[in-house]
Write a structure and sequence with these properties.
The complex is a heterodimer of chains A (415) and B (491). With 415 residues, chain A is an alpha/beta fold. Chain A has 18 helices and nine strands. Chain A has three domains: 203 residues, NADH-ubiquinone oxidoreductase 51kDa subunit (Rossmann fold, 3-Layer(aba) Sandwich), CATH 3.40.50; 84 residues, Ubiquitin-like (UB roll) (Roll); 95 residues, NADH-ubiquinone oxidoreductase 51kDa subunit, iron-sulphur binding domain (de novo design (two linked rop proteins)). In chain A, a hairpin with a 6-residue loop joins β7 and β8. In chain A, α2 packs parallel to α6 and α2 crosses α9. The N and C termini of chain A lie far apart (54 Å). By secondary structure, chain B is α/β, with parallel strands linked by helices. In chain B, strands 2-1-5-3-4 form a five-stranded mixed beta sheet, sandwiched between helices. A four-stranded parallel beta sheet of chain B has the order 11-10-13-14, sandwiched between helices. Chain B has a four-stranded mixed beta sheet with strand order 12-17-16-15. The chains are: A alpha/beta (415), B alpha/beta (491).
């Protein structure tokens, strides 16, 4: 029976998120005090080497390494940004953190700002999280009044509802007041980010883990969970599980344990057919892969991705044709329109998937989807377009029967 | 220095050079659509994707720096297939008229020849085959479609007197957006919607005439296809030419001939004003006047105006009013400077009023210019009946059989004269400062080319601390030689 381990979510249920004194009572902002007594470079080393904290937003990039890059870039101004543009379908971990404990994120940001030498920071909050942005503004104000944010000006800004703004350079463009579209990389934000200044963009969950690591020590953190992706991870369960809930578990927990112990198994009588971990752009896992541990590298080895940490469970009553169509529609809606392959490709992919789902598809359409998807993967400007066809490929490879059946049904009817 | 190979060809470039520039140096043509020199790299059309040996996937040549030892492949099967796929995706909602020729019937892009296109009346393509998209379709032999055709329905914007926008032909390369915003600082074009519904619209979403546009035409110049073009009027001139009561008098401005010859693919050393004059007579023009006369008149008048100001001790800068787009810019952005505007109109207006003064109502005045703002100025002028761009003249010549190769040059009716100018003109990009002596007074004058430079110099003029007594302002980035209705030399 898997046990939750609440590190990032340590204060959930214990404190009133609107009251900073509650957070202080639980030892809040002590890590910041501790950090300020350290050399900035030492903080970065602590995260980079000992803690091996890797980004919790989906890319799994070494957090300390990112900070080091910004630390070494000479500039008159540096920025720190918290990516709270949580738009990945089925993902609500950042919301859980921010709703219950906004100060842990603010503290993490303050530590990061001190470490890299930033004096201004932004929390980029998803447009739909309007209540959270108010809560954050309130929390920032409280922290300022207590003098905890000396030398750091924090702003809470709201997105405008674009999924692509979860991509860090599109997010930066959006803060600058421009269209939410990705920038060319390099230069990376740690060299030239917000208004051309070195900028660190980290996910909410990443920042939330920082105070704990400094508080309890990097050695302690690195011994938790999987060796190469230590710590805990928050997962959000959705789909055909009994308990559609969230949990924080060490990263060496198996997917099966989360689905069965936390999720309580399947909701209906049908058996599990597929699991999509990490969000809409991630591949599907079949039941034989359920014993994979939920760390970044194990998931990759299993042909899937950890992504944002959403776990979307589908039972045998689901046709992957419909699931695929719904995903292609999502990407068609969220393509920013900047580059040709994604702008045109997501629309075509959705139209082809709609045809198949609606019963007007043909086997030739499957071939067109494969070719178009490969093209989008190779030619698109940013990860949105590059990965939009990934779940489609995965569905076609693992559940081709579903597609064949739908097409056959129709071809049969035609006779 | 960096050594790399492109398609097996060794090339040495300086650090920081892009793969695209390195390929140009090596004489290898990597196709582009969204790339334009003078603009920051967009890398959104993905046509210039190339493979780098050992790399993880194709990279845009316009945005990737050449690296020591790099092996670039620009024409692998994957790359070619990708370019075909891109072009096909553009075609799936591009006007049908661009994809077949009614004369050739069920034609393929490979069947179309530029020579034939420039002589044909049927599709009324504003580019007459000189279209970057069409060239790529031919080069990569893209015709049929794998997808259901989905043309978008749009209305053309003809609200201004010089610029037409046909959104149906837009390929969303954003060159116009950069030309207007990044280069000129006007921001009259904006990108709206997202995904498949992304569109270029005039700022504010209304008509172009209601936007901050000053009709400099740089968007037209940057458009690779027929989505933006100068207002076309090919019928008015032939009508006037056939009217026995009319005397058609034409003047080509000094920046007209060169781009026209480039469009017509004629050698600029062989063909001159007299050849153009022969062609114009062939389409019914009665008198062809040299450009210098009116230019000289403008210079003389401005000099007189400046001398008068100097003698009156007026220290405000005199601002030239010869560029209609700059005047429009000044009147809307710096109305407080309208008193500083020179009373001397541009050469086109000088020519028009001179012709009307001599021939009266019988005169039909035709100005040949590559400037879209001059179309705007003519629309408000009683003296100028028609302004035609190099593209329009090229089309009209083609359709009238006026082949300069076969026509004997004809002398101008008012030959080009030797010039003598007290105030020198300048085409230098940005702000240029000079000292001149006028009536024994040593004064500073300046020229500003490009609307960003114009904005800066007008800011200075408005500040009251302007050291210049005369400022020549021109809206286009390198002055009139980079006027709006000129076809852009892409690279």
């Amino acid at each position: 029976m898997v046990q939750e381990m609440r590190i990032v979510l340590r204060n959930v249920g214990k404190i009133n998120p609107e009251v900073i004194d509650d957070y202080l009572r639980e030892g809040g902002y002590q890590a910041l005090t501790k950090a300020k007594a350290m050399e900035p470079a030492a903080i970065i080393t602590e995260l980079e080497r000992s803690g091996r904290l890797r980004g919790r937003g989906g890319a799994g990039f070494n957090t300390g390494f990112k900070w080091r890059s910004a630390f070494h870039t000479q500039a008159d101004q540096k920025y720190i940004i918290c990516n709270a543009d949580e738009g990945e379908p089925g993902t609500y971990k950042d919301r859980i953190i921010l709703e219950h404990d906004p100060h842990t994120v603010i503290e993490g940001m303050a530590i990061a700002a001190y470490a890299i030498g930033a004096t201004e920071g932004f929390i980029y909050c998803r447009a739909e999280y309007s209540e959270i942005s108010s809560l954050l503004e309130h929390a920032v104000k409280q922290a300022e009044e207590k003098g905890l944010l000396a030398g750091l000006k924090l702003h809470v800004v709201c997105g405008a509802g674009a999924y692509v703004c979860g991509e860090e350079t599109a997010l930066i463009e959006s803060i600058e007041g421009k269209r939410g579209e990705p920038r060319l990389k390099p230069p990376y934000p740690t060299v030239s980010g917000l208004w051309g200044k070195p900028t660190v963009v980290n996910n909410v969950e990443t920042f939330a883990a920082v105070p704990v690591i400094l508080d309890k020590g990097a050695g302690w953190f690195s011994r938790l969970g999987a060796e190469k992706y230590p710590g805990t991870k928050i997962f959000c369960l959705s789909g055909d599980v009994k308990n559609r809930t969230w949990c924080e578990v060490p990263t060496d927990t198996s997917l099966r344990a989360i689905i069965e112990d936390i999720g309580g198994g399947m909701r209906g009588s049908e058996p599990l057919k597929a699991v999509q971990v990490g969000g809409s752009s991630c591949p599907f896992l079949t039941p034989d892969k359920l014993d994979t541990s939920v760390d970044f590298d194990s998931m990759s080895v299993a042909g899937a991705a950890l992504g944002s940490g959403s776990i979307f469970v589908m039972d045998a009553s689901r046709s992957m044709v419909d699931v695929t169509y719904s995903i292609t529609r999502f990407f068609q809606h969220e393509s920013c329109g900047k580059c040709l392959p994604c702008r045109e490709g997501t629309m075509r992919l959705a139209a082809l998937a709609e045809g198949i789902a609606g019963g007007t598809g043909s086997r030739k359409d499957l071939e067109t989807i494969r070719e178009l998807g490969t093209f989008m993967n190779q030619a698109s400007f940013c990860p949105l377009g590059q990965s939009a066809a990934v779940p489609v490929f995965s569905a076609l490879a693992q559940f081709e029967e579903d597609f064949r059946q739908r097409i056959m049904e129709e071809e049969g009817e035609c006779k | 220095m960096i050594n790399l190979t492109i398609d097996g060809k060794a090339v040495t470039v300086t650090a920081g050079t892009t793969i695209l520039a390195a390929a140009q140096k090596a004489g290898i043509d990597i196709p582009t659509l969204c790339y334009l020199k003078d603009q920051s790299v967009k890398a959104n059309c993905r046509i210039c994707l190339v493979e780098v040996k050992g790399g993880s996937g194709p990279v845009p040549a316009c945005a990737s720096e050449a690296v020591q030892g790099m092996e670039v492949i620009t024409d692998s099967a994957v790359i070619i297939a990708g370019r075909r796929r891109s072009l096909q995706l553009i075609l799936t909602h591009h006007p049908i008229a661009c994809q077949s020729c009614v004369r050739l019937g069920n034609s393929r892009h490979g069947d179309l020849s530029e020579e034939m296109c420039s002589m044909c009346f049927y599709c009324d393509c504003v580019r007459d085959g000189d279209c970057e998209l069409q060239k790529l379709l031919k080069r990569y032999d893209v015709n049929g479609m794998d997808y259901v055709w989905a043309e978008k329905e749009y209305d053309s914007d003809t609200s201004t007197s010089s610029i037409v926008r046909d959104p149906g032909k837009c390929i969303l390369c954003r060159r116009c957006v950069s030309a207007c915003g990044e280069v000129q600082g006007i921001y009259a074009w904006s990108i709206t919607g997202r995904g498949f519904h992304t569109a270029i619209e005039s700022a504010g979403g209304g008509l172009l005439a209601e936007s901050p546009c000053v009709e400099c035409g740089q968007c037209v110049r940057s458009c690779p296809v027929g989505a933006l073009y100068e207002t076309q009027n090919l019928d008015d001139l032939p009508d006037a030419a056939q009217d026995p009561a009319k005397t058609v008098i034409a003047r080509a401005d000094p920046y007209f001939l060169k781009p026209y010859l480039r469009l017509a693919e004629l050698d600029e050393h062989t063909f001159g004003d007299e050849s153009l004059s022969a062609g114009l007579r062939r389409i019914g023009v009665d008198l062809v006047i040299g450009s210098v006369q009116a230019d000289q008149a403008v210079n003389t008048d401005i000099t007189a105006e400046l001398k008068k100001r100097l003698s009156e001790g007026d220290t405000r800068p005199l601002l030239s009013a010869t560029c209609p787009a700059s005047v429009q810019y000044l009147l809307t952005r710096f109305p407080q400077l309208s008193e500083c505007l020179s009373a001397v109109p541009g050469a086109q207006e000088q020519f028009g009023s001179w012709a009307k003064a001599n021939w009266g109502d019988a005169a039909y005045t035709l100005s040949l210019s590559a400037c879209s703002a001059k179309k705007m100025a003519a629309a408000e002028s009683v003296n100028v009946d028609q302004v035609m761009s190099p593209r329009e003249i090229n089309r009209l010549f083609g359709r009238s059989g006026a082949d300069l190769n076969r026509l004997k040059p004809v002398a101008l009716d008012e030959p080009q004269q030797q010039e003598c100018r007290d105030i020198p003109d300048s085409d230098c990009a940005g702000i240029q400062e000079r000292e001149v002596i006028l009536d024994n007074q040593r004064i500073l004058i300046a020229s500003a080319c490009g609307l960003r430079a114009v904005a800066n110099v007008l800011e200075l003029a408005a500040s009251g601390n302007c050291p210049y007594r005369y400022i020549q302002v021109a809206a286009c980035p390198q002055g009139c030689q980079s006027a709006g209705d000129l076809p852009y030399e892409t690279l």
